[in-house]
Protein 1
Amino acid sequence: MDRNDPFINIFREWIELFMHRSMHGYIHHARKKGLRMSVIGTLHHLRRAGHVGVSDLGEHLGVSSAAASQMLDRLVEEGLITRVEDPEDRRMKRIALTERGSEILEESVNARLGWLEEMRDRFSEEEKEQLAAAMRLMVDKAREARSSSPD
């Protein structure tokens, strides 16, 4: 990576600042709610993936199916997820977020990104339009790069 490239340098600075501020809010919220980061990560994965199986979740988290199953049992007890028989394969369990799980997940996202509203208010309307256009370009190019990646 070219450390003399002004684009890379300012983008790297933005990413570091964004991650620091976002994770600070995220961790603070998790502690306040008594949640482990692995739980919030699991809830995020379930929302993105929809209904998943225990082995799929274990693979995503990098743990054994038994460890994933134990964690899921705790989340069921806490009312954050449901675990029901798969109607197509009764040997399998389908896992989904409960309303409470969705609410906690939404609160964690808001805690993680709440500082952006404060930052938004520091910009003029013209600056916000310029930044929105630049960020749209970044998002589009990142999606192009992701779709052309071999992995």
Protein 2
Amino acid sequence: MANTFSETQQKLKAADAERDQRKIQVRKSIALVILATGFAAQLARILTIESSTGEVPFLSANDRSRWCTIATLAVEGSYEIDKILEVRDAKSNRRVWYTIDLVRHRGSDGKQHYYSSKPPLLPTIYAGVYWLIRQTTGASIMTEPFFPARLLIIFVNLLPLTFFWWLIGHWMSRYKLPIFAHTALMAFTVWGCQLTTFANTLNNHLPAAIAVAVSAFCIVNLAEGRSKSSGWFLLCGLATSFAAANELPALSWVAAAGAILLIINPLKCLLCYVPALLPVAAAFFGTNYLAHGEFAPAYAHRDLGELIASAELPEDLELTSAAAAQLKPILDSNSIEVSENSTIRSARREGVFELWDPETEIRRGLKQTGNTLEVYQWGDWYDYEGSYWTSDRKQGVDKGEPNRAKYVAHCLVGHHGIFSLTPWWLLALLGFGVIGYEAGTLNFFRHHTLLVALAILATSVVSIGFYLARPLEDCNYGGVNAAFRWGLWLSPLWIWVSLHTVARVKNLTTQRVVIALLALSVFSTVFPWDNPWTSPWTMQLLEWSGLESWI
């Protein structure tokens, strides 16, 4: 009797193991089908990239800015993009490389030059990839741009994105989710997450999100006790720092990840995680120095520079009506030499003027406070003759939304809304509550899954709050684009949180709700199929309905 009972138990265990193995195979097969279809669709999309005029494979001023750096590094070995900007199409005579995402400042040769306003680290890496393409195929981006550009995007966008999809799928498989939950999560990751929207254009959001995914995978491995290896601490440091190099607010994730790892293992955090932050930081500031001659990135130069002199103005002289010749004696007396040909131009900042010396190509800032003339080093690299970034030239959303409440509403639930465009993220909101409920405690020192969730919540609030609190000129939804793109790097963190909600979906009614949220998210993701640098469908719907006042 005992032997019969034991044999029955063994058979039941074997049957359970076989059933579990079949479920694993089903999950893998479903994930592979979703991933393969996503890869094929994005490959076809990339192979048909072309501008609206059909001359180049660049889709907006944003990605052209990075392409300019790649091209000038390959052609000139320099970060100065003056010559690239003037390249014209042989048939249309249009400047097909021109971009508004520019800065202008004095270069190492003492002359004024244009540079991309984008941090140079990522384009420098991509220039290396282009160099390999050029050496292997002989194709030049200057003479036949479509083939090498599309091939480069396959290497730097599609292959990393496919790795991202695989990593999320591998990560999810560890939780032995129900078939429905696993399928829905994979379908969302590949088809519903708006990172996919930007797969056919150069951008910083995709590499940042992939780096965040890698770092989160490392952290959860350690937090859930799956591994104690120092390698995860090292990889996490490299990944979080690379994310921050591409998305400034991701510094909050660097800090949050450090706090988590400090609680898990203080010694390894200090000896492995912290030093691993340094290589990417060195590369970020090093490439910035190579490009601009200083460590501060271009976006840090948007106002007056350092005060270098001040002097009393004659009572009958106002800066608003003064000529450079009238100011020359005052400047000379303060050891500031300017030529007779110098001119004064009203700057984009109120009350600020540019003193331009064409002989030395030095720009200085002038400002009057009472009867005192203040002279500054020129610090606003976005302000130059013909700049788009002036109040009289900016158009549409680039002008900024003056109503803060309206801006916040549109960023969260409006035409660029995180939750209106991707309602799947409502499951992530619920996920924070689910994790807290499952933890059964508020002691995150003991419950590390709760610790990770709280770190993600804090990171999300800080980073989204950073953008919602920006000054007027930055309240522009990230310019003309199909999403609130500044929050896309948080996607892998929110996917992990949403997992905990979807895993609890059991009945048909809640499954239908999840499917509806997934379908709406997919619609937002694929709507701008040809070009992500277009307005979201929600904004286009408001315009079509004659509700421009709501925008």
Protein 3
Amino acid sequence: FLNSMLTNDLTKIPDGAAQYSMLCNDTGGVIDDLIVYRNSESDFFIVPNASNTSAVVADLQAHAPGGITVTNLHNEFGVIALQGPMAAKVLAHFGLQIEIDYMAFTYVSIAGCEVIVCRTGYTGEYGFEVLPKWSQALTVWDALVQQVEANEGLICGLGARDTLRTEMGYPLHGHELSLEISPIMASASWAVGWNKEAFQGSEALREQKETGVPRRLVALKSLDRGIPRPDMHVLFEGAEVGIVTSGTFSPSLKCGIALALVNSNFKVGQLLELDVRGRTSKVEIVKLPFMPSHVR
């Protein structure tokens, strides 16, 4: 059932592994991007974006055949991202020598609480995501924070995560993905199982792959002091050719960076401009990621 709903091919992962995928509508728009975790051939759990949980559950429940149960556990779990080169050392304090591959998961105990530990994240760094039951989330959080601070780590919020995921070129629903922006437009066709049988939205996506799309996601690097921000217009010779979907100052590169949907004829190396509150700022189309990945 899930393989007929989601874009990626779930037959490619074994028990105890996870996979990045998307749930599309019939026109190829993205209801949400998500991580699917396989417990067994008949038992999967899905972590969507929190704000899209209801939409994902509703769509899966609407299409689930008899014998398939879709349960909304959104209010029963928390998610704590433990990211960076010291992540394994922090978990080791709890007696956990977690040697699992990237995109795999296991069940362990932290501070007396049973949790799911996944070798996943959305920062581009080596790390884990810890899923405690909501009733025990504060206990697990406090235990992890104590060890993070003991190892000179920092507590940060979604703003910092957003900067890191932008540096990696990871799409965020509502920005690079939406009901109007397909995986093809978002340059995320790698998350589509093209060789599997039909799935929700596959006909529209195959047509887009065959005929092309008017705009695609690209990476932009500022060539001056301008800082790209979402919804800024991308210009070429004064004409609007795209829109910024995510933009920020990169602490790693010490310059402005952006993800933008631009006309499909523009390529890496070409120079464009941004409309920054009435003045122009020069940018270059560059390859992603902006920073090397350290997830493995």
Protein 4
Amino acid sequence: MHEHLPPLRAHAGRSAVASLVAAAACWGLGTVASKQIVDDVAPLILLPVQLTASCLLLLLITLIRRESFSWTPSTRRLAALGILNPGAAYALGLIGLTTITASMSVLLWALEPVVILLLAALVLHERIPATLAGLVAVAITGVLLVVYEPGAAGNTVGITLTLVSIGFCALYTVLTRRLMLDDSSLAVVLAQQAAALGFAVLLAAVVQLARGTGWALGDLGPRTWLAAAASGVLYYGLGFWFFLSGLRQVPASYAGAFLPLIPVFGVAAGFLTGERLEPRQWIGALLIVAGITAVAVRLRGPASTPHAVTR
């Protein structure tokens, strides 16, 4: 059936926008932080370390806020989605990245908001306004201007794995929006991250048994471990918490429209560390900000009603 979402109140609209922008910031900055250590830490080690740090942070916040947490049927269903993302999605993405260039990877990931729009329409039966689709197209154009570099290439296997990973992430967004009713965002993200951690540990154990390299720790110093944990807290803990906090207040199609902000925060972090942007990158960043600002205005205005979600 179709559930028509009520008009967003001004406070709810501002809260959703703030949460989704904060999520994009965490993911953009977290990506930059992860790039600093990915050469020192094997992906199958990095993911469990990051998720462990994330789970510890979320558990600490849960205890401080004295939020109740119980494995209800609803929580178990939502937790299972953590195996999908960040579990399987990031595992496939990391494997795919070994056979395609970084430029090709970021170009492919620009498709995620489009996939979310399509799945939101097909699975949730959300009505996608032409204006929203147009604004997402503007933002994606900006992403391409920001991240494109000549020489983007990759083999078929790597591209396929990356596309499957993108599909998993988009499906995660849509299904979480469908299942998330009155559940606490903090409880949901903690359950999902715990499930993802279990998957990551199991995957590393399987690779260890099969190839003897799953737990190849190498010579990692305290600073590397600390950097890995910090990037996990930023990218997985805070990033997913903010995203789910915004997602529970708005349709999935609108939540996905904020994802093009991720490379803006990424290049901003690079700029602060001494990297310089080309003119086309400045233009791209302006297009992204303009497009997402227009989406935010729609969310805060009275015209943010015409969406429907299937339950």
